Amino acid sequence: MNALLSVISSVLGFVSFDQARFLDALKVAGISILSIFVVMAVVFFAVKILQWATNLKNKKSEDSQRND
Amino acid sequence: MNEIFDFLLEGVRGLVADPKLLIMWALGFLLIYLGIKKNMEPGLLIPMGFGAILVNLPNSGAITQEIPGVGQVVGILDWLYQFGIEGAEAFPLLLFIGIGAMIDFGPLLSNPKLMFFGAASQLGIFVVLIIASLFLPLNDAASIAIIAAADGPTAIMLANLFKTEYLAPILVVAYSYMALVPIIQPVAIKMVTTKKERAIKMKYNPQSVSKATRILFPICVTIIAGLIAPISVALVGCLMFGNLLRECGVLDNLSESASKVLANLITLVLGLSIASTMTAEAFIKWEFLMIIALGLFGFVFDTIGGVLFAKLLNLFLKEKINPMVGGCGISAFPMSARVVQKMGLEADPTNHLLMHAVGANVSGQIASVIAGGVLMSLIPGLM
User: Fold this and answer.
1) Would you call A54 and B212 a contact, using CB atoms and an 8 Å cutoff?
2) pLDDT higher than threshold 90 for residue A41
3) Looking at residues B109-137, what average pLDDT do you find?
4) Do residue A40 and residue B229 have CB atoms under 8 angstroms apart?
5) Which of A25, B214, B289, B293 is most buried (most C-beta within 10 Å)?
6) What are phi and psi of B58, to 5 degrees?
């Protein structure tokens, strides 16, 4: 990692390369991607639970109609 | 006599003294041309183009000016910007209510695994964030990166919140690329797929989505996103409130007003408000070229991220997913879904992918808003 950062520093010597800022950006990117997947996964399971609950309710009403 | 000439030629002298104004006029004409002739996001590009000409007239009264003997006179475009964007980001948030009322999440709810493509297709945002951080402070880097969300209101909110000096160029580039999705995405998809992969057929077995699911979905998404990234709740909440209006079944008039009247009205004033920042001194910088390049990079990596994620899933799935559907997880709705439908038919004339693509496409709408919210939570602590 340090070797990579020193290569980037030397290549980008003409601009204001800030190693700490670059590492912060990497950290933000990592946390963000993970967070988005976590949110979407929780929404996915919430939808699955809603679908399961709806199916269960429909089945119960069908059963009760059949019994009647 | 000289005094009369001086008075009449004051504007022309201002133009000669600052030729950059003419460049902004040219940009204004270009935006109007693209909006009218090429039908590229005309609702925003035409007001922005006209506004760009308006604010770059010498001593334009459309923006705030110091008038000798009178003092500061607030221009209408500056006022609109301060009121609708700078204040509490009211315009983009209200626009989200309208967008929420337009979106049918049905295709996504009948196949919820498409949600993960929305997440994967945000890759471009973070690739651009990392690259831009090499040159620019994090607030500017994140504001530029959000172009890749392909989501105008989110881009406006972030760029404004992070107080970037590149707000106007970012928005021009973001809306231009959104209109260019039908050109950018096929190239990016062909870079990472074979014709055989593009011809993969997907069965469409729509499960009926109950009304309760449709009503509870926007409420659940708001609560989940709000608990994980609380600052995103304004964005997600407005989008989902609009959708609740649509799905609840008892507010059809409000839903119609939100999706048509409100959305049109806000779009109209939004374009003009953004134009107030399109002054020559704020716009003509070498960084504009960098923003164009980074924005393109972001859109390409969004698409590639979604496609590669679909390929990864295919390693484990019995019923294969057409990888192009993964590339639809961006917020540009419904252009991206149409692109994939067209490419599917090109690969195999019997390959209809539209409903899967639409599902992934609307998941991109949710994921882009969450991506914006997560950046809004993380970046301020590092600024």
Assistant:
1) yes
2) yes
3) 92
4) no
5) A25
6) -55, 135
Q: Is residue A13, in this structure, part of any structural domain at all?
A: no
Please tell me if residue A16 touches chain B, with a CB cutoff of 8 Å: yes
Q: How confident is the model at residue B242 (pLDDT cuts 50, 70, 90)?
A: very high
Task: Express each pLDDT in B218-234 by its tens digit.
Answer: 999 999 888 887 877 88
**Angle (CA) B54 B58 B59, round 5°:** 90
How many structural domains is chain A composed of?
1
- Burial (0-12, 13-18, 19+ Cβ within 10 Å), A62: exposed
Q: Of B277, B237, B247, B245, whose CA–CA distance to B262 is shortest? A: B245
Position B240 pLDDT exceeds 90: yes
pLDDT at B172: 81
Query: Using a CB-CB distance cutoff of 8 angstroms, which residues of chain A are in contact with residue B118?
Result: 40
Q: Which domain holds residue A40?
A: 18-67
Min Cα distance B369 → chain A (Å) is 10
Does residue B42 have a cis peptide bond before it, meaning omega lies within 30 degrees of 0? no
Residue A59 lies in a domain: yes
Residues of A in contact with B366 (CB under 8 A): 40, 43
- With CB atoms and an 8 Å threshold, state whether A48 touches B112: yes
pLDDT at position A16 is: 62
Domain contains A55 = yes
Scored b (16 or more CB within 10 A) or e, B93-115 reads bbbbbbbbbbbebbbbbbbbbbb
| Domain-located, residue A12 | no
A44 CB within 8 Å of a chain B CB: yes
d(CA B336, CA A4): 36
Does residue A4 register a pLDDT over 80?
no
Q: Provide the percentage of residues in chain B whose pLDDT is more than 90.
A: 42
Q: pLDDT at residue A13 above 60?
A: no
Mean pLDDT of chain A: 82
Query: Which phi and psi (to 5°) does residue B256 adopt?
Result: -65, -40
Task: Indicate if ipTM > 0.95.
Answer: no
A59 close contact with B: CB closer than 8 A: no
Q: How many CB atoms lie within 10 A of CB B12?
A: 10
Closest in B130, B135, B220 to A26, CB measured: B130
Total domains in chain B come to: 1
- Under the banding of pLDDT at 50, 70 and 90, the label for residue A10 is low
Residues A26-51 have a mean pLDDT of: 92
Q: What is the 3-state composition of chain B as percent helix, strand, coil, each rounded to the nearest 5? A: 75, 0, 25
Provide, as residue numbers in chain B, all residues whose Cβ is less than 8 Å from the Cβ of A24: 133, 138, 382
